[in-house]
Write a structure and sequence with these properties.
heterodimer; A: 226 residues; alpha/beta; Elongation Factor Tu (Ef-tu), domain 3; Rossmann fold; six-stranded mixed beta sheet; B: alpha/beta; eight-stranded parallel β-barrel; four-stranded antiparallel beta sheet
């Protein structure tokens, strides 16, 4: 799908907010799904939806550097939305984000009637989107404060962030008996489930495909040390 | 009208463009986007008798004009393929090429025997750079390549292609050896053994340290390898390596390929195989070529 760039502006050092005119693809957009964006290289870049027609991404390498140069009116070559998103049932949910894990959770917060968010960032300068969440605690530090999960009194958790954070969240949720869904990140190629490069080790052995079986998985399905 | 049909190792294809093994799984995912019957043939993900879990991630790394992969032949096994995947492909009028591997000659023979007359072609993978066994160690030497080929051909009920590695100084000898062992043709090239290092962490980007290089970066290597085998071994060639356009496909055919497989190009452009067919046909029209098969080996070498 070719769609127009509406804007692509920095919102923090090295972090850009890209808005696209997605037109008819609107109905297929769901929290946790991703867009596979062509950047003129061998591989597309998978970026999680932050809201319909919106992705917030950090410049990490050549692909995102190229994407950051996109200007209003440029045309973007998008595959998707792809992948399986977060569960759609409307239960009260605690949203846990680490760094660039915040954007997909903002999309969740828009569709959940009742939620709270705990977002963790390495430093004040890297805080993004926190004021857009309805009910949000911000933690600044190197380590995600997973021990605070129980204090929110919510019965379900959605989490997105660096793998060590997700592993800590999964462990704490298992201890508390809370259902927990995690959005996994992995390098991808095809994005549609064919090439098997975006492997996520799963409990019971073997690998699932992050692009097609995920990127959202029940936390207990992930082999955290696999 | 250009006659786009070709014959590869005795099998008639409606056009020369083939889905390459590994990039297209068992067809289902791409079948959501276009009819697989538009392809010349589809090569399925590498199969063995036992199935395999594959390598730990990261399995992919981008490179200038290409990528490395180290999937490590993750597959459900031949029996699950026949039960769960082949029926899906059979809804299309489409020749199926089964890519197989084994830990030794008898492993290849058993996989070939289990697939016997159920597919149109078998492609022996003796050239994967990402596994300890069933990989390019077999394909680098004429003797082992011939031994595996003979064992598989004896059990297969269909023509056998042997997929060769460019990671050998003995390419022509290996091609001749597998032809004498009964191969109906060869596929080349498999990926080039390669490596990238993350300079910040000093770790290889791939969890298995090394992987196979594919994409436009390897196209000239493919052209040279195909031409070497075309001139020295006189056998049908399924060419592959970095093809992303109709002109790339024409180049491999001019070097000596009868058909051309597409893999990596489909990652940036899911419709790449369909587009390449149209571009190749346009090239033939522009060149006044009535039959695409006339391109095979049509390079005009300098004297």
């Amino acid at each position: 799908m070719i769609c127009a760039v509406l804007s692509n502006e920095p919102i923090a050092p090295g972090v850009f907010d890209l808005r696209l005119d997605m037109g008819a693809a609107g109905a297929e957009q769901k929290p946790g799904r991703f867009l596979h964006i062509a950047v003129g290289l061998t591989l597309r870049r998978p970026l999680g939806l932050c809201e319909p027609g919106r992705v917030v991404y950090a410049v990490r390498g050549e692909g995102t550097r190229r994407l950051a140069r996109a200007k209003k009116g440029d045309l973007a070559d998008i595959l998707g939305p792809l992948g399986r998103g977060f569960p759609e049932s409307d239960e009260p949910t605690l949203l846990l984000g680490g760094g660039m894990g915040a954007p997909p959770l903002l999309y969740c917060s828009r569709s959940l009637k009742s939620s709270a968010a705990l977002l963790s960032f390495r430093g004040q300068r890297s805080v993004i989107l926190a004021s857009d969440f309805a009910n949000c605690d911000v933690h600044i530090g190197e380590r995600f404060p997973a021990e605070r999960i129980g204090s929110f009194g919510l019965r379900r958790v959605f989490a997105c962030g660096p793998r060590p954070m997700l592993a800590a969240v999964a462990k704490e949720c298992a201890r508390l008996g809370l259902p927990c869904f995690v959005l996994m990140e992995e390098r991808m190629a095809c994005g549609v489930g064919a090439c098997l490069v975006c492997a996520c080790a799963v409990t019971g052995g073997g690998y699932s495909r992050v692009c097609a079986d995920g990127p959202v998985f029940p936390a207990e399905q992930v082999a955290w040390h696999g | 009208m250009v006659d786009m049909t070709v014959t590869l190792a005795g099998v008639r294809l409606r056009n020369p463009i083939v889905a390459a093994s590994g990039a297209f799984a068992f067809g289902r995912e791409y079948g959501e986007y276009y009819s697989l019957a538009r392809l010349g043939a589809l090569t399925v993900k590498g199969l063995n008798m036992e199935g395999g879990a594959g390598n730990p991630p990261p399995r992919v790394a981008e490179t200038p004009c290409g990528m490395l992969n180290s999937v490590g032949l993750q597959n459900p096994g031949v029996a699950a393929f026949l039960r769960d995947e082949l029926p899906y492909l059979r809804q299309y009028d489409l020749p199926v090429i089964a890519n197989i591997y084994g830990a030794d000659a008898s492993g290849y023979a058993r996989a070939a025997g289990a697939l016997a007359d159920k597919v149109e072609l078998i492609e022996l993978n003796i050239s994967c750079p990402n596994v300890k066994q069933g990989g390019m160690a077999f394909g680098a030497e004429p003797d082992t390549a011939a031994e595996i080929t003979a064992a598989a051909v004896a059990e297969a009920g269909c023509p056998v292609l042997v997929k060769l590695t460019p990671n050998t100084a003995k390419l022509a000898e290996v091609a001749k050896a597998v032809r004498q062992a009964g191969a109906a043709g060869v596929s080349l090239i498999n990926t080039l053994s390669a490596m990238r290092i993350d300079t910040a962490s000093r770790r290889p980007v791939l969890r298995s340290n090394t992987g196979g290089l594919s994409g436009p970066a390897v196209l000239p290597v493919a052209v040279r390898c195909i031409h070497t085998v075309f001139r020295s071994a006189d056998m049908p060639i399924l060419g592959m390596g970095g093809v992303a356009s109709g002109l790339d496909a024409a180049e491999l055919m001019l070097a000596g390929a009868r058909a051309v497989a597409i893999g990596t190009a489909a990652f940036a452009d899911l419709w790449a195989p369909v587009r390449v067919i149209e571009e190749l046909e346009a090239y033939c029209r522009a060149q006044g070529v009535a039959r695409v098969s006339e391109l095979t080996g049509g390079v005009r070498l300098w004297p």
